[in-house]
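Before going further, learn to read the protein records used in this course. The integers have meaning only within a learned vocabulary of local backbone shapes. To see the layout at work, look at the sequence and tokens printed below.
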Amino acid sequence: MKLVNVHKLNIFLVLFVVGLQSAQAQVWTLQQCIDTALIHNRNLRMSRNTISIGEQKVQEAEANLIPKVFANVDYKYYTNLPYQLMPLSTFNPAAAEGQFKEAQFGVPHNMNATLQLSMPLYNPQIYGAIDIAKIGSEVTTLQYLKTEEQLFYEISNLYYNAQILHQQLSFIDSNLTNATRLLRNTQLLKEQQLAKGTDVIKVQLQIVLLTTQQESIESKYKQILRAVNFTMGKAIELPIEIDPTIHYHDPEDYRRLSTLDIRIAKAQNLLITSEINTLNNSKYLPSVNLIGMFGTTGLGYDKQPNDFLKFYPIGFAGIQFSLPLFNGTVTQRKINQKEFELQNNEIQIELLSEQNSMYVQNATMQRMIALKLFSTSSEQIKLAQVVYDQATLQLSQGTASLTDVLLADNSLREAQQTYLTALVDYLKADLELKKLTGNISIKN
């Protein structure tokens, strides 16, 4: 299975390095998470087994071309020998025609031991089954690639979410630092009777809100890490950390490739067509088999002076020819069903193609809007930070009120949230666009 083993060397190297690390939380890159999932993810493991099942089905279909040999042994003891009607003239030449006399033939002991050979020389159903099994194996391989693609998409999404939450925690830490410094300044101003007690309470409330928000995001961050572990197929309590650095690149125009959904639908089209051809061939084409038998027949009578059993050889070789003439239109009904399935499949391919085009346009537009908003929000954060610093300085100089500082703080946090939202939208839109254009790959 070349497909399954493409990345095995890199994966084993990654796992080897990870295995040498201590049990403490380690920083995992996105590629390390993907490589680990390729080995341990349960859906992929089941898909690999499904590929092996498909390969075995192909070999099973091809095995029908191999000669079949059967050994048969039977023994019969007749308590009543079979009767036959003999013309009475056999015993009495003067008997009239049409008169018969019953007679028993054979001996009570009968034994047969034979070897039977059967080998298909031409059988359209067998060849059709082989073609169907091969196409079915290709469909299974495509479905494995689909599972692999979905795994890459899921892990990337989870990893991006973890990075965003980590970035959000960084912003909150910075905001808490600002709020703590503001609280000290406000308390000093209160001691100098330049601020009210309610001003101190307002700042303390801001710190409480930021701390609560920090605890909530930390909880979400841990949940995301558990989901990453689960998707990788590892223990959910495995201590890991993600690389907080968000690597994004300028948008590029991805080359439109055939998506796996469309490739699977086209492969299913070939499968249905092959099934129709097989059914049509079974209606009109004959099957030819080479048959043969070699053995011995034992006949015996358990009274003296006869031997108990006396064996006589038996054997034949020949060709068996079978031509279907009429089976009650059963095959034709099956063909009609498959033709309707083929029509539905062709409609599905058209639907997937048009749907994919629509999704590509939407994702391209969403990525462009997110990029613009991301660029704008980056500048907004810088400006909001400057405004906040100036408001804090003016507060210490008595030329600005606490309300001005809190408004500047809210503006800063809004700019940070807008930045994070735009970054999430851009990363996910870019990932979605890769998937829709067939460019998403474990190699990326």
